[in-house]
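Lab notebook: predicted structure, single chain.

Context: the supervisor wants predicted structures on file for every construct in the current expression panel, including those that have not yet been purified. This is the next one on the list. No modifications to the sequence; it matches the entry in the shared construct table.
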Amino acid sequence: MRKFFSRFSRRTWIIIGGIGVILLVIIILFSGGGDQSLFETELVGRGNLTASVGATGVVRAQRSAVLVWQTSGTIERVDASVGNQVDQGQILATLDKKTLSQNIILAEADLVTAQKALEDLLNSDTARAQAARDVDAAEGAYKKAYNYRLELNGKITITEAYWDSGFLRTKSYKGYADAETISDADEKLALAEAQLEDARRIYGRLKDGPDKAEIAAAEARVAAAESTLGLASITAPFEGTVTQASSTAGDQVSVGTVGFRVDDLTHLLVDLQVSEVDINSVSIEQEAVLTFDAILGKEYHGKVVQVGQAGDTVQGVVNFTVTVELVDADELVKPGMTAAVSIVVEEIKNVILIPNRAVRVVNGERVVYLLLDGQPEMIEVRLGSSSDTMSVVVGGDIKEGDAIILNPPSMMGGPFGG
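Prediction complete. Output recorded below exactly as produced.
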């Protein structure tokens, strides 16, 4: 044995001794008075808590339209391209008249005729003036028939004709009308009364201007002609931006061929699917933060504009549709992009906060461990609102400056929510 140890030099022994000292220090630190080095701690403090609900969705325009051709023909002219701002009713492309069906070509003439008839109806006073004259004439006829029938109630002058020596002579006398004469007078009076009512009814429709029913009919004929003629072109249904254009002059198109897409980029929305667990914390006008994989390093803001009141069940999971409108979108944000949205459902200021990772569940109660005099001590806590990382302390013997243990051993209870 002496021979074995004699092989080590003095220097070797010094090295071995140093290693021993280091091992002894490590053993001391991990036992007894060195327990605090086993734990990761953080000082309890005050701060602001922002609770949020997160989800993803796809950007869409509030108004969007895919415009297709309604008839067959050859494109003669294209007046819009991707990126152009267009007004409602603006013509984007037109078909060559020579390639259109006959009914569309004739619609142009029908439109001129219908517009002239409507203009005459609106601007001419002839119908009203004639209706007034018809009322006067009908009133005169009625009075005459009425007076005649009134005379038949008493004696009237009756004139009879007879032949005398080859001459036709007449004689008159006072007498009563026979039943046939009275019946005939009654019929004439009834007819005169009905004609007077008709005349007054027509005048009533026209006295304040053209007949509304006739105007509606004339406007319908104009609209029908315009609709038929409109088949020869594509127009913008609202003010917006051309986001897709598939039409080129000279192209042959048929019914249903896609020509353009127009989006109102001034109002961009994102539809989110929010869990039934979170839906009751979401309400209209709440603020939201949006980020996009396609737009790095930039945050956008929005607000909740619609909250679904009925859930959809997919594979046993119930979600509600929540719509968020962007309030500061720029040209980088485009319909179809995927957005990660965080809705701020609650914001609490100047409260005591603790990290969620420090909370454990022991015997059904939420607890944390504070490092006191180098030893962990369990403290029961009551928590309020929470975010993904922090919770508000609303009860428990915890104060600012306490050292809370972030990584208590598993034997000290299950994780928060476990």
